[in-house]
Design goal:
By secondary structure, the protein is mostly helical. It has a single domain, classed as Helix Hairpins. The protein is built from five helices and no strands. Helix 2 packs antiparallel against helix 3 and helix 3 runs antiparallel to helix 4. It is elongated.
């Protein structure tokens, strides 16, 4: 029962780590460039969830002082940094997908192995 309680207490951390591992597996095992971009997004989501879980304070309140009381405050910085990270992640995703479109226009495929074969064939003709 202790192990189950430990898992349930840290489910947010485990969820973040699980998402990161799923994304890493996707990036490593798939040769399709769009699937790799999706894997990078899943990894980023896992990192965001993990950092939000770290920033959580049980019983904390927003950092607003009322009547001179100072209860346990939640640090707003992790949330702000995660929002910034989400914006950067979306920007990188858009850029990566635009590169995938350009690669498809150039090589006619988005499979990494086929692109490498085409590049090797082009080098042998030069």
């Amino acid at each position: 029962m202790n192990i189950l309680n430990l898992i349930l207490e840290h489910i947010n951390y485990l969820g973040g780590v699980a998402l990161f591992i799923i994304g890493l597996h996707t990036v490593v095992t798939h040769k399709n460039l769009i699937k790799r971009v999706m894997g990078i997004n899943i990894m980023a989501t896992g990192i965001f969830l993990f950092f939000i879980a770290i920033g959580n304070v049980t019983g904390g309140v927003p950092p607003i002082v009322v009547d001179g009381e100072s209860p346990v405050f939640i640090n707003p910085m992790p949330s702000v940094l995660i929002l910034t990270g989400i914006v950067v992640s979306v920007s990188i995703t858009v850029y990566a997908l635009s590169l995938v479109i350009r690669i498809y226009q150039t090589y006619g495929t988005i499979d990494q192995e086929e692109i490498v074969k085409i590049q090797n064939e082009e080098q042998t003709y030069d």
